[in-house]
Design brief:
87 residues; mainly alpha; 4 helices; Phosphopantetheine-binding protein
Length: 87
């Protein structure tokens, strides 16, 4: 994982723990289904996505929600979108 990806990971976990304070960031596996690991209901998941939008200034269309299954998926998606926005 690059330094950029590590920074994004830390920010994503900060958003996640703001939504679900009981989450232990050190216990989140990057390659496992995120919603299953932290037991987010649909409202929490939407709040998480809104939090990502606010934190990263990246639009996440509803059609892309299914692409964001694991922490790695979220990090890669945000890295790609951030790079596109700064290009």
């Amino acid at each position: 994982m690059t330094q950029t990806h590590l920074g994004i990971r830390d920010e994503v976990l900060a958003v996640l723990t703001a939504i679900a304070p009981e989450v232990e960031p050190d216990e989140i596996r990057d390659d496992a289904l995120l919603r299953d690991q932290v037991d987010l209901d649909s409202m929490d998941w939407l709040n998480f996505l809104v939090g990502l939008h606010k934190r990263f200034s990246v639009d996440i269309p509803e059609a892309d929600y299914r692409k964001l299954r694991t922490l790695n998926d979220v990090i890669g998606y945000l890295a790609d979108r951030s790079a596109m926005g700064s290009a």
